[in-house]
Amino acid sequence: MIKTIQEKDLIFDVATALRYERFDDDAIHGTRSTMKRVDFIIEGDEEVTFLEVKDPDMPGARDPEKLLQDLKKDILIPELAGKYRDSLLFSFLRGGYDKPIKYIVLLSMASLDDALILRKIDELRFAIPLTNSQWRQNSAYSCVILKLGAYKQAFGDQSVWRASDYED
Fold first, then answer.
1. CA-CA distance, 120 to 77, in Å (whole number)?
2. Where are the domains of the chain?
3. What beta strand segments (E) does 8-153 contain?
4. Are 110 and 148 in contact (CB under 8 A)?
5. pLDDT (tens digit, 9 = 90+) per residue, 12-37?
6. What is the DSSP-derived secondary structure letter of residue 49?
């Protein structure tokens, strides 16, 4: 059975997930909440994935270069870190998870420089932060920023596809 979640033009296969939810949903948080939220939380057998999707390569995207400028001007990383921290706090307060958590940011921008992504991954890990000597456990065991090709390489060619590729 095919199970999918969709963020605008990108569709993700979640057939192997135990549970999944569109976390960026006012039905969960209420309309007055100022907490930032990741797009999806996907629970698997061994781990929980917090997934944030940014897709400036989407057909018809308005101002796709803004994401690149926000990344270079150090605007995007604090925003991504805040989304993770607030989502983690919200999840913890509603019962938490007994599995390790990984944070994946999918930046679907083919023109994005791989060296820039590597630098920004380090900045994101520091901004969250992932560890602290006072904590009993890490806030996440993994934190990555992936372009669409790298996401498919890590999770399989059929793990994500564009809805627009199948429209007439």
1. 7
2. 4-166
3. 10-13, 19-22, 40-43, 48-54, 101-107, 142-146
4. yes
5. 999 999 999 999 999 999 999 999 99
6. E
Count the alpha carbons within 13 Å of 49 in the hemisphere toward its beta carbon: 22
The helix (run of H) or strand (run of E) holding residue 6 is strand 4-7
Beta bridge partners of 12: 5, 160
**110 DSSP assignment:** T
The string of pLDDT tens digits covering residues 31-89 is 999 999 999 999 999 999 999 999 999 998 888 899 999 999 999 999 999 999 999 99
28: left (phi over 0), alpha (psi -120 to 50) or beta: alpha
DSSP state of 29: H
Peptide bond between residue 59 and the one before it cis (omega within 30 degrees of 0): no
- Do 39 and 52 touch, CB atoms closer than 8 A? yes
Residue type for position 5: I
Among residues 60, 61, 39, which one has the least CA distance to residue 50?
39
